[in-house]
Design goal:
- By secondary structure, this protein is α/β, with parallel strands linked by helices.
- The chain has helices at 22-30, 42-53, 65-74, 93-97, 128-136, 144-151, 179-189, 205-215, 237-250, 271-276, and strands at 2-4, 37-39, 61-62, 89-91, 104-108, 114-125, 155-163, 193-197, 220-223, 257-259.
- The strands form 2 sheets. Strands 2, 3, 4, 5, 6 and 7 form a 6-stranded mixed sheet that branches.
Length: 278
């Protein structure tokens, strides 16, 4: 994607920040033992982080039914803003039945650690086959995205979220550059035109060619490899990142390339996912 640093607004018009302030965090922590809990899987943790840092702007939480239905059918939020992938939090019926709309819900990571809160505004059922056919263009359960969809809960929880704390990435802390920071870095570097390049794959010759062509016509190249949840047989993120590091160390001009991780999870949704990464 191409980006001009002289005033282009974030998608939807505002860069979202749903990271709790120290004061908010203390309030949320004080309620920890009294809140109903939902345990997130790896993908939901990525989604929570992406919402909180503004990577999914203008979303401030997990989608309600109106947004979800229009995204699935028309690739638009309810207000008409372009959006191609549902960002939802699913739970099984038994969990959903224990939660009340209007409650504050504690969100735990897969290890059971308290990492965020959901202001629950809506619970709703959805059609998994409909989502599979529209988003992934197949209902084949062998497809990795469809497989995740079919295995997840049958009820979506909607509402605004807060991430308690933005912690350094466990593997790539020096490459953790969130949207607000990347925008500031572009200004400091004096870049007026930027090409962003995102993939989950190790960089290969066609990628290198595209990137070198981009450097011929813009001020800066923003390399943004995805390091969130992927399928088990994908090449590990540390290997993929090392490929990029070697290029930066040995080949690319240091003052014209910025490497930063994208913490989003991989959906394997083809064209729809390509649009969402723009």
């Amino acid at each position: 994607m191409s980006y001009h640093s002289d005033g282009i607004a974030p998608h939807g018009g505002q860069l979202v920040n749903r990271i709790a302030t120290p004061e908010q965090r203390q309030v949320f922590l004080s309620k920890a033992d009294f809140l109903p809990r939902v345990q997130l899987d790896e993908r939901a943790v990525s989604d929570l982080q992406m919402i909180a840092i503004g990577g999914f702007s203008p979303l401030t939480g997990f989608m309600n039914q109106e947004d979800y239905n229009r995204v699935v059918a028309q690739m638009r939020l309810a207000n008409g803003t372009a959006w191609s992938i549902p960002i939802t939090l699913s739970v099984h019926e038994k969990v959903a039945a224990s939660l009340k709309e209007g409650d504050l819900i504690r969100l735990d990571n897969p290890a059971g650690r308290y990492i965020g809160v959901l202001e629950l505004t809506q619970k709703y059922h959805y059609d998994k086959t409909r989502e599979a056919v529209h988003v992934y263009r197949t209902n084949d359960s062998k497809h990795p995205g469809v497989q995740v969809l079919y295995n997840q809960g049958s009820v979506h929880l909607a509402g605004d979220v807060w991430l308690l704390e933005r912690e350094p990435h466990p593997l790539f802390p020096k490459y953790q550059v969130d949207p607000a920071e990347s925008r500031q870095l572009f200004k400091e570097l004096g870049w007026k035109t930027i090409v962003g390049f995102q993939t989950r794959n190790p960089i290969h010759r066609a990628h290198e060619y595209i990137q070198k062509c981009a450097l011929e016509i813009v001020d800066g190249l923003f390399l943004h490899p995805l390091v969130g949840a992927t399928k088990e047989d994908d090449i590990p993120a540390d290997v993929r990142m090392r490929c990029y590091e070697i290029l930066l160390e040995k080949y690319y001009p240091h003052n014209r390339v910025l490497l930063a991780i994208n913490p989003s999870a991989m959906r394997y949704a083809g064209p729809r996912e390509a649009i969402s990464m723009l």
